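User: For a reading group we're discussing how well predicted structures match intuition. Take Aminopeptidase P family protein. Before you show the prediction, I'll give you the sequence so everyone sees exactly what went in.
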Amino acid sequence: MSDALAQQEAVGSRFSLAKMRHARDKTFEAVRLIAAQIRPGMDEQQAKDLARATLARMGMERIWHGIIIRFGHSTLKTFKQKIDPDNVLGEHDIFFIDLGVVWDGHEGDAGATFVVGQDGDMHACAAAARTLWQLVSEKWQQDGCAGSALYDYAAEQAAAMGWKLNLDIKGHRVCDFPHAIYQAGSLGDFAACPDTGVWILEIQIRHPTLPYGAFYEDLLLRDTES
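Assistant: Thanks. Here is the predicted 3D structure of Aminopeptidase P family protein, as structure tokens, for the group to look at:
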């Protein structure tokens, strides 16, 4: 690996793979706790306030990226687009949660999609995002693909499953806080096989005709380390 690529995977002196796993697990725990409290009739700002309070009760050190919660049509938005604070969750609706939280000096980043009600297509969309994430993770473990090849594969698999992949969302670095000092760029632009425990694989898909989508993200860890 070149020096430039190695710098993109640099970590700090405090870095611990075990602590990265812990941060990942705590962040997913928070995602699940928050999702269990979200109800139809709640708006996105109320959900965000609920999330912040839940994280505080859990004893987080800090938030390292803004809390993102999207309802319904807003599930098509990307990370940098603002929430719609007045957007209300319907009785039969879809939503996702994306959290970036520091635990014990290490960055957790987790996101998942949930459905309220009985809309079968929405349930299928939420499940497909997680399934696609797993397929891409397995490809990484089995073939040692570069980050760019992983997202090419993700787009192919999404189409085969009947969904459209949002290629504006290409994953990113994490490590002991703050990872941003390494200027690592996107996983989807990384020209080597990503190392374990330092990259977030993000998957965002949309329904081919209806105005909603689903999101799932997790830390790339080899099966022996997860």
